[in-house]
Amino acid sequence: MNAENIMNPFAYYASHSAITHPQAYASWLTNLPADLPSLCHLIQGIALHAGNAHWYGLSLPPERQLESQLPTVADLLACITALDARPLHVARPPEKRLQGSCRTSALLLGACLRAQGTPARLRFGFSHYFVDWFYGDHVVCEYWNAATQRWALADPELDDPELAQLMQAQGQTWAFAFDPYDVPTDQFILAGDAWQRYRQNQLDPAVVGFDPERSGEGYLRRQLVRDLAALNKHEVEAEWGLGRTDQAVTQPEEFDRLDQIAQLTQQAQASFPAILELYATTSAVQVSPHLEASSASDST
Description:
The strands form 2 sheets. Strands 3, 4, 5, 6, 7 and 8 form a 6-stranded mixed β-sheet that branches. Strands 1-2 form a two-stranded parallel ribbon. The chain is α/β, with parallel strands linked by helices. The longest helix has 15 residues, at 217-231. Helix 3 packs across helix 5 and helix 7 (191-199) packs across helix 9. The protein has helices spanning 3-7, 9-14, 36-46, 73-83, 102-115, 161-169, 191-199, 217-231, 252-265, 272-281, 289-293; strands at 47-49, 98-100, 120-127, 135-145, 150-154, 188-190, 208-211, 214-215. It has one domain.
């Protein structure tokens, strides 16, 4: 990454990070569809959320659950192609799809877009459309929409015709009435927005987290620190520093720092230089090389 790219957010987010770089699998990301719906449907044909495996009638061995913890796109592609060596545009049978998480799908979409020169970045926050009374720990992909000249949020887990049919046959559905390639920010709530709502007593932390048993302020902080790291192209799902759910934040200066992160990350374009500087100068939010190489998955 040269100095010019660091000063240009579009060039910065159009280039791979250490996490999204396909390494030896770069050729697998060539000649893929250029339109977003086709890319998302392609991803749905090579990976599925491990939590949705039961809709497909799958009961996979425990070792396959580790696939959702693969840290890099190169690792994901190695697994995908080992399961089925056909080109990525060929949809696999469910048992041959990578068992992933929301980060898996968002990371694959981000890598595909960056491989095509489209600025893309992962965003960490909370979904309000899987369960309407709970804000679930979630990850989506934000991309530069050249047609509308703005950043838009895409959730590559949605708009899956096969999964929708399976769920409907069993009397359930995901009720979302919005464009999955332009998710409204009142449906996917950026981590910074959720943190500010909490600080202003507008959001009960008991309804924010992985599930009702794993919720609270710690999950708000965790997503906030993850989002800052992702905006610095460290797209990991571990928890560290100010984002550790097992450690309470008590010092006023720590709350001040989190408030600052919340403000900057909600204005990621205008605050781009400040976001890079804050991350570079604040050890409590920096991802260690060890964490980057072994990101753990715990999102919806």
